Amino acid sequence: MPRSAPQDFADRPPWTRPGFLASAALVLVVVIAGVVVAIASRGDDRTDATSTPPPATLAPSGATPPQNLPTAVPTVPPTDVQWGLVGQSAVPVSSTAGPSRVSSGTAAGYAHTPDGALIAAAQLSIRAGFSAGRQSWEPTIEQQFEPGADRDRLLAVLRDAGDAPAQPGELSQIAGFSYQSYTPDTAVIGLAFRAPVAGTPRYHVLSVTLRWREGDWRMVAPPGGAWTSVNRQTTDLVGVVEWGAR
After folding, report:
1. What phi-psi label fits residue 16: left (phi over 0), alpha (psi between -120 and 50 degrees) or beta?
2. 159 conformational bin, left if phi > 0, alpha if psi -120 to 50, beta if neither
3. How many other C-beta atoms can be found within 10 angstroms of the C-beta atom of residue 175?
4. Coil, strand or helix at 95
5. Which of 68, 102, 107, 126 is most deeply packed, by most CB within 10 A?
6. What is the DSSP string of 220-240?
7. CB burial of residue 109 (10 Å; 0-12, 13-18, 19+)
8. Which sign does the torsion angle of CA 104, 138, 202, 236 carry?
9. Confidence check: pLDDT of 168 > 60
10. pTM
11. What distances in angstroms separate CA 181 from CA 16, 34, 53, 83, 109, one per listed residue?
12. Looking at residues 37-51, what average pLDDT do you find?
């Protein structure tokens, strides 16, 4: 008999169980199984993302980032995205920004650009979610998260959670994104998720951090391995670029 998932939401990623009630005022079923965002070039307001990104290099600590890497963050949804599924969640793949390698539950190979960071944020957070299945979250966290105590705690919580697959319609889906900060070394991106509840739309925004390491974007586990520490609830998408699978 598999062990039951821990009931303490503060110790578990919002999406590590197939659904939950936030409060009387807000029902929020959170499972990271979102839609991977890839931003295409558009107009004069953003950098051309259709060209092949330069060879990935990590500047030494304290060094000036390479000047030829794009840093202008996109302000419109991507146009070169195809949608697929990870479990019951839609995920996008961009021909220009990645991922370029998908196998054994993982997706890797992202452009060293703001677009690449955005897609990596969505792909890695979705694949690291409980409902993606152990064949996905375990190698994703082990191989594509930065090592440390927070990553180890996140793994321990998931390994202890047992098996509780999501039911159709129970998962939150990506509804938009916002760049909170970006440099060629570090990206902080807010992924907005729409809760699958009737009536007034309900959202939560997950602030994820990625760092460019060893030629690819790697995710930083949340403090204490608890995604609730970087999650906020809202009833609107003010300041968010609306985007999601249709």
Report:
1. alpha
2. alpha
3. 23
4. coil
5. 126
6. EPPGGG-GGGGEEEESS-TT-
7. middle
8. negative
9. yes
10. 0.73
11. 27, 21, 20, 26, 21
12. 36
Residue 142 gets the label, from left (phi > 0), alpha (psi -120 to 50) or beta, of: alpha
Question: What single letter denotes the amino acid at residue 204?
Answer: H
pLDDT at 147 over 90: yes
> Measured between alpha carbons, how far is 239 from 222 in angstroms, rounded to an integer?
23
Which tokens in the block code for residue 121? 């944020």
In DSSP terms, 211 is beta-bridged to 186, 218
Residue type at 221?
A
The CA-CA-CA angle for residues 162, 164, 167, to 5°, reads: 170
Amino acid at 212: W
Query: How far lies 151's CA from each of 13, 48, 83, 144, 183, in Å?
Result: 12, 34, 28, 10, 23
Beta strands in 87-230 (DSSP E): 89-94, 101-103, 106-108, 173-182, 186-194, 203-213, 216-220
Q: Structural domain boundaries of the chain?
A: 17-41+70-242
CA angle (140, 171, 93) in 5-degree steps: 50
- State pLDDT tens for residues 109-129: 999 999 999 999 999 999 999
Element (H, E) at 123: helix 114-127
- The β-bridge partners of 173 are 194
Q: What are phi and psi for residue 203, nearest 5 degrees?
A: -135, 160
- Find, among 151, 146, 81, the residue nearest to 119 by Cα: 81
Site of tokens 């909170």: 180
Structure tokens at 243: 């985007």
Residues 6 or more apart whose CB falls under 8 angstroms from that of 61 comprise none
